[in-house]
Amino acid sequence: MFKVTHWVVVSRSQFLYDLLETRWPQEFLVKLYSSRPESLERQLKNIQPSLVIFDLASIDVQVAYQLQRHIEREYTGLKVVFIHFPKQVDIKFLINPAVTAGVFYNDLSLEVIGKELNNILRGRSYIPAELNVGSIEEEQNSEESESLTIREREVLQALLSGSTNVDIANQLFVSESTIKTHLYRAFRKIGVSSRGQAIAWAQTHLHEVHV
Fold this sequence. Notes:
Elements: E1 5-10, H1 14-21, H2 24-28, E2 30-35, H3 40-47, E3 51-55, H4 61-74, E4 79-85, E5 100-105, H5 110-121, H6 133-145, H7 150-159, H8 165-172, H9 176-190, H10 195-205
Helix pairs in contact: 6-9, 7-9, 8-9
């Protein structure tokens, strides 16, 4: 008798879930569950899945990052896959070799994703070579041990004034995605996982920085 495993698709797109529901349960002998980001932590306790699939086309990268960190802390052996991973935005820091088993760009077909998911089920990983996971891990460790850059300190300081990412981007004449990248890297360095925690940290440590 075959054992049916459980996968959770974290997405705000019902269409995507319905599409995957027509293919993956039969293809991989899995039971598929749909989850919105805000309800994932509760579902993880109830379902005990073996794989969590994040749809980056419909959920915020920061939210996915925080949820993946939760999975790493609380669920040994649970793996994460990202689909619709954008090529145009630098979010390589999202990849965590400890839990990230697959990264699929937004231009890949379900056929290709399905083929590589079979390999992931056999214990392999699928992360594009250009993302260079080994270097990413070294870079993250280096980032966490070094001090904040001037720009990262400026962005954290701007949080204290209640500025949104768009406000900060306009202040510093860069794109909103660049501001998000600075925030994610700063979050790692100072050991926080939310905007509120970053503001609390900045209130104590960044009095001397002015934007």
